[in-house]
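Appendix B. Worked example

We walk through a single record from start to finish. Start with the input: the chain for Phytanoyl-CoA dioxygenase family protein, Paractinoplanes lichenicola, length 252.
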Amino acid sequence: MDVDAFVRDGFVKLEQAVPADVVDACVRLLWERIDPEPDDPRTWTEPVHWVGNMGQPPFEQAMNMPVLVDAMNTVIGPGRWHPRNEMGAFPLRFPHADEPDDAGWHIEGAYMPPGETSYWTNVHSSYRALLLLFLFTDVDEHTAPTRIRAGSHMDVPRVLLPYGETGASGEVLSPLVAAASAHRPTVLGTGRAGDVFVCHPFLVHAAQPNHGTRPRFLSQPCISPTDNHMLKPYEGSDSPIARTIRQALNGA
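Next comes the structure step. The output line below is what the pipeline stores for this chain.
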């Protein structure tokens, strides 16, 4: 894994991290969870189908590929993250004339304070150590690649700092991180089925519509810290993520 690129850009793409047979098995299971048919575009009547956690053996195998385990140990630190045997949410994007309403620039939230209805983030990245993006279909510039602002992980800590340990909701933070990172170049998360993007928890990114001719299947699991690091995953750490957060705050 190219650690220097991760520190510079806030993400690294691991090509073919998941073998083709595992990808194919996962895709078959995803099609079984939705109404659209893979070979009948007439059934692709919605721009996005969301599928929840999938814990069948192919997804467990994909989550625990040795190259991914090594990457997470490298950027988070050994013993600081919880292995997963299932995957998080799957936004399955289909070619459609309607524009989705979830395509704004944002960072991922990780926890929901009592009485709130949306996910929040704080400067410690509590409850979230890392974001992964798994490509389960080939993704080109037309088939809804995730938009990534390279280097934006260095802009976000200063946005979060005034909110302290309490943090703030996505509704509050999204316009702020979008403005703070507007000067960053946009990179498209294109690749082949089986590629995985290892992303800094503060990386600013956005979805976009699928203007291609085939569906795009992607998963975006959260990697959680271990229990003793849940509230401050990077306190006392010298991992690449910890170093970038400290560096960004030192420049505040």
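Two observations about the output. The longest helix spans residues 20-32. Residues 123 and 160 are 5 Å apart (CA to CA).
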